Structures are given as C-alpha cells and as structure tokens.
Amino acid sequence: MRAVLMAGGSGTRLRPLTCDLPKPMVPVLNRPIAEHILNLLKRNDITEVIATLHYLPDVMRDYFQDGSEFGVEMTYAVEEEQPLGTAGCVKNLEELLQDTFLVISGDSITDFDLQKAIAFHREKQSKATLVLTRVPNPIEFGVVITDKEGKIQRFLEKPSSSEIFSDTVNTGTYILEPEVLKYLPKNEEADFSQHLFPLLLDIGAPMYGYIAEGYWCDVGHLEAYRESQYDAIDKKVFVDFAYREIEYGIWMGENTYIDPTAIIEAPVLIGNNCRIGARTKIEGGTVIGDNVTIGNDVELNRPIIGNGVTIGDECSLSACVVARGTRMDRRVQISEGVVVGALCNIGEESQINIGVRVWPQKRIESGATLNINLIWGNIAHRNLFSQRGVTGLANIDITPEFAVKLGAAYGSTLKHGSSVVVSRDQRSVSRMVSRSLIAGLMSVGIDIQNLESTAIPISRTMTPKLGVQGGVHVRLHPERHEDMLIEFFDEKGINITKPKEKKVEGAYFKEDLRRVHSIDIGDMSYPSQIIETYRKTFETQLDVEAIHNSNAKIVIDYVYSVSGAILPQILGRFGCDAVVLNASLRQRAISTEEREVLLIQLGHVVEALKANFGVQVSANGELFILVDESGLQIRGEELTALMVNTILTANPRGTVVVPVNTSSAVEQIARRHDGTVIRTKANPTALMEATQNNPNVVLGGSGDMGFIFPHLHPGFDAMFSIAKLIEMLTVQERSLTQVRAELPKVCHKAQSLRCPWKTKGALMRYLVETESPEKLELIDGVKIIEPHSDNWVLILPDAGESLVHIYTNSDSKEWADKYAQIYRSKIQKFIITQQVND
C-alpha cells in the first residue's frame, strides 16, 4: 500500500518556528515531525511514500532525499503555483494511486495501529475510511458523527463551541479507494473535509469512521507543540528516539560532556556534541538539541532547546521553546510559553516574559524586559474573532498599534482599490481605534467612506447604497463596557462569514500584509446626506400616512448614545410626538445598574404623560426595551413574541427567523397566522444570513439581539422597529397592553452551569448518544424535543466562556421546572465524572 504524506503546510500558528521551516520539518525530540510519521508508516509495513509539498519544499527534499536512509521509498509532488488543498493535490497523483491508499497528515504525532484501520476499511468494504479519535476540546478540529456500525452520519468542520455535537474528531488520516478521486476536478483547489467527504455522504457512498486507540496530537499551535514533546518524553506515545537511553528516562547523544556537579532529573533528552557546565540543574521534561552549549549555574525547567543554541552562565529557562542558533548571554530569564525564533541574540540580564514570541534574527539589548511580541505590531492573538467580531479591553488589547495591523490585514483580503465604509459610536476611544483602522486600510490601498459617529443601522444601510466592498463599525461592547467591539460587514452590510474571518486572521498572523506605493495609498471621503438617505429608506418600508395620523405620543430614552442625535430628526419628519430623554452624548458608558434606574424612570414618565408607550434604545441603535402605557417593561422573550405577533398580524403567512433558544411562543403565534418559523444558530451572523437567504421573511431576531427587517437592511435596527411599531399599533388599532394580553403563556427558563472547555465536546457527545435520535435537533447545541408538543430542552455551550446554558420550554411550568432540574443534575454528574477520570 502507498501512503500520501500531506507535507505542504506553512504552519502559521507555529510561527516563529516555521518562518524558515515547513510545518512537518519542525523538530519533536530533535527529529522532524515528518520523520516520526515515516517511522509510524514503517512500523505498519507501509514503505512507499509520496510527499506533497508547497511551502519551502527543498527543506524536506534535502533532508529525506530518496528515503533510503530512513527505510522508505520517497517521491515528491510539489504544488508550484498555488496550494490545491488537501484533496486537490492528491487528485493530481491519481495515476500513481491505482489501489487502496492511505493519506496521512504531516503535522501530527501519533502511534495509531494503521493496520487495524486498514482491516476495518476492508471489512466494511468502505470507499473512504476516516481515522478518528476522541479529544477533550474538539473546537479546533473537524467533528465526525458515526452510527453504531461506524458509518459516517454527519460532518462539522471546526465548530464553534455552541455547535459541538461530539468529541470524536477527524485526525487527517484516511484510507481511500482510488475511484473516489473521480469526483474531484483536476487542477482545482479542493479539500477532503469540505468538498469530497460531504459529496460522498450526499450520494450515499459507503464511508466509515474508525475510532483508533492510542495517542494523537495535532501539532497545530505552539502549546500543542510543547505538549507533544512532553508527552513523548514521558512515553505517553510510542516514538523512536534519536539517541540511546543511557539510564531510565535519560537519552543522550554521542560526544556530549556533562560536568559532574550538574544535576539531571529524568526524563531528559540531550543531543550530540553538547557541553553542560557546572552546577547546572536540568529538570524532567527538558529537551536539548545537538551542539548546544550550556554555561554554569543554569536552571532549565522543561525548556525545548534547538540545535546550536548557546546559553550563558546563570540563565533561567522555564517551559519555553528556543529555536536553532540562538545565543543568550549570562543571567537571561525566559518565562513559560515564550518562543524564540532561530538565530536570535539575547543580551545579558534581559528578561522575556510569559507568552512572548520573538521572530527570527532579532536582537534584544542587555537589561531589556520584553513584554510584547518582537514582530511588527504589538500582541499576537491565537484567534482574532470572537462569536461577534473582534473584541478586547479598550486601549489594552485593542490598541492603536493593534488596530492599524488589523485594518491592514482586513484590507489585504480585499482587492486593491476597493472601498469600505467605516463608522463608530461617539466615544473618544472608538474615534482613536477607527482612525487607526483607517490608517491600516489606507496603507494597503483601500479607499474609505468615513461615516464618522453614527448608529450601526445607518452603517449597514449605507454599505450597499454606497457600492462599497465592505464595512467596519467600532463601538464599546454592548454588554461589557470596558471592552471594544469591532464588526466587519460584507458588501450587503451582513457581518462577514467565518471563512472570511479566517482569511483576515491568516493575513494578520502571517504578517501577509499588502504594501502599496505612496501614490496608491487609499483616499478618504465623507458621504453627505447620510441621515436623509436612511430616512428615505425608512419611508419605503413604512405606511407614512398611518404614522402621520397616529397622534402617537411616545417617550424615548436614548441613554446618552449617538442614536439620540438621529432618531428624533426622523420621527419629527413623520409627525410623531416624541418626548426625548437622555439624548445628550456622553463619553462614559452607562453601567447596567444605571440603565435599569433609567428604565424605571422611563416608566414613570410614560405614566405621567399618558403616552402610548416608552422605549429605551441601546447598543448603538440595535437593541431596545419597551414600556407599555401602564409603565410595565416588555423585554427579552416577551418582546420577541410581541414583535412577531404584531408583524405577522399585518403579514399573514409570512416567515419569521429566530434563534434556536427562543421560546415556542413564536411557533404558537405563527400557527395563528399560518406563518412559518425558521430557527438558526444563536449568533448574529446566522440570523442576518437566514433573513436574507430565505423567501418571504418579514422579521428576524429576538429581544436579546435586536430585530431585523430584511427589506430595509440586513442588520438589527431599534430605530426602525420603533417606527414600525407605531405604524402597526395605529393600523391595527391596538395598544401595547392589548397586544400583550394576546400573547401565548409559555414557561421559558434559562440557567447556566460552569463547564470546563475540555469537557464541552464530551458532554455534547454524551447527550447525543443518550437521547433518542428522533427527539434530537442539532441546529446549535443539543435540543431534545418532546414529540407533538412545544416542550423542549436545549443545552447550548457558551461560545466565549466556560459555561453551558440550559433552556427549558413548555406550556406547563411544572414540566419546565422538572426537566430543568433533570438535565441540570445529569450535566453536573457528567462534569464531575469527567473531572474524576481526568
């Protein structure tokens, strides 16, 4: 059997180690990862290997040559122009793959029994068998769900934490029959997980998953790189060592001298031609390359040290990685999680603090303390995007330097000469960050349409109207007022998709930033009549005459935000009697407690003025809370039901789009009006996309996220919602109290439990496996539905914190309370069991 070794990766997240090495050539225990894979293949009687190369291909070819020194027959296939993806490059080898063959990733450490997997493949007469394993946290991997026979039922590529259905993941090792390659186009980019396997699943080809026993570590990021070394030296995985074991747990190369006063604790690996000085202490877990010189009185606490490194006297290194050829003078301190690239020079008594990365060939002056990464820019994040845009502490994480680089990274994913809209809220910190983003965008040749300080619904409206290719909005985070939130739009005004986010992240991490000549720097302009354009768009979606004749009196609390400078102008044009509260602009964000006080005051004003209703607008024009004529608040699930009822009354047989965790009151209301309900994942982008991509949608969103009117623009809009509500109540001749009385009585409860990140995937798999398949709905999290009723329980992992949310929904309070307790206990027991087993 032949094996295809996928060795074209550039290893972006392993930088700076991969700045001058392809990912499969990064050393683990002083041998390239690819050499460990070849040893695994040899142990499984597979000696014909074709390596697919792209990034720095000569490094691997020069090392392995024809493979004879390593006991295999090596050939190479180089993707010269552009990477063709995992499947595309294998398609190009079709003539060499006439029998069953194995594909294996070039960036993992494993000791799987591949012959057992091959036997399973043949026994099942499978066309494609994926070698699977179980991991504590599957968020970085492709999740695969199989039935009891191992037949694959479903794929989910790199899920968000709320989408995790299982902890069984794809290891990147496949056993394939050659005929599956006929489904792939030649010389086109294609991926096994995204293209070939879903296609085979759709056409019903026999495709199985083999859950392998043994160790597997995807060396995808620096933490995993360190862990794989520690696991290997602790013998948690079977690998071939490059040196002999001179005593238990101590491997040492040839011609190495260790001073008799040095202290060495097993397990330790020390390479060839090393020199270790007096009184040096080397703790267990340390890995030392070839030709390393270590001075006197050095303390090494589990560092991984590359070939040719020189360490001066009295240095201290803790759980860090130092690449080849680096020199450090005396009394240098390198903290845990630091990665120093090749050929650096670190001066005397300098200090590199926790988690810092230093790019190759950098010089750190004597006595310097390094707290930030020594690359272009400031802080390198593992992931830029959260569930909703880029977030971080204002002027700590989200700094001007960070924003410049982020703007350049985003702009580099767009064509040169593209235009984008940029807008912000009224805060000074938002102005600072938006200006920095603009500088980064202009530096890569992107033109700016600067809307300055305005509400986010206006930005989304203007994005398609200005004919730009995207947009950026900067504001304080609606829920965490110490944080910034930076959202990126596509040309329609919808938040960019996950693949586009990954492109921005790739440009950011790889430093793959376009630079243009000075004459090609982007231009900036300031569009005029923005509010007028927005108002005219308003009018196309409203019965303006009904609003003019409504004689409505409403009270609006703007909570000192920028929407207070916009909506009064619009409502005034429509002849509304609007009493405005707290419309001045403030730099300081209002706390949750202050907002609740203002909400109570709003209720008092509504009662005193005998107004039709009151509304508090927040989140820069996206969210609102209603207060009815008696001063009672309408928010959350009740607000969702009220808006759905009001809109479907005017649009029978319409479609509404709501998050998966919204109460069943929505379905009950839709049945009254012969309407349709579409449920989506509980994130803003999913809601925006669903409202645009489905026909006959009249409303989307929820009281917690805001409401979308898809014919207006694709985002949440509190300002239009208020105007539409005035119109609906006028036309339907009803008050909020009357509408509220019509709403279904549904018991909808939510609670949260602490759940470690590494347990989330196993918990979701446990729930899927222990519930009847006909009761399961896997839109987002795991939803257990009681047939022929509106009773359900939803277990939804939190996307940003170590929490899991439990929602129970029923017409019966007793049922909701009972099952809330049942599933709370079930989840708690599982979490405790997992912790005990760990």
From TrEMBL:
GO cellular component, as recorded: carboxysome
Gene Ontology biological process terms from the UniProt entry: carbohydrate metabolic process
PROSITE patterns given in the database record: HEXAPEP_TRANSFERASES
Stored Gene3D superfamilies: Alpha-D-Glucose-1,6-Bisphosphate, subunit A, domain 3 (3.40.120.10), Alpha-D-phosphohexomutase, C-terminal domain (3.30.310.50), Hexapeptide repeat proteins (2.160.10.10), Spore Coat Polysaccharide Biosynthesis Protein SpsA, Chain A (3.90.550.10)
Keywords from the named record: Cytoplasm, Initiation factor, Phosphoprotein, Protein biosynthesis, Repeat, Transferase
InterPro entries: A-D-PHexomutase_a/b/a-I (IPR005844), A-D-PHexomutase_a/b/a-I/II/III (IPR016055), A-D-PHexomutase_a/b/a-II (IPR005845), A-D-PHexomutase_a/b/a-III (IPR005846), A-D-PHexomutase_C_sf (IPR036900), Hexapep_transf_CS (IPR018357), LbH_EIF2B3/5 (IPR056764), Mannose-1P_guanyltransferase (IPR050486)
Domain (EIF2B subunit epsilon/gamma LbH): residue spans on this chain: 250-351
Keyword Amino-acid biosynthesis in annotation: no
Segments forming domain Alpha-D-phosphohexomutase alpha/beta/alpha: 383-513, 533-631, 636-745
Family: Belongs to the phosphohexose mutase family.
Protein name: Nucleotidyl transferase
Lineage: Bacteria, Bacillati, Cyanobacteriota, Cyanophyceae, Oscillatoriophycideae
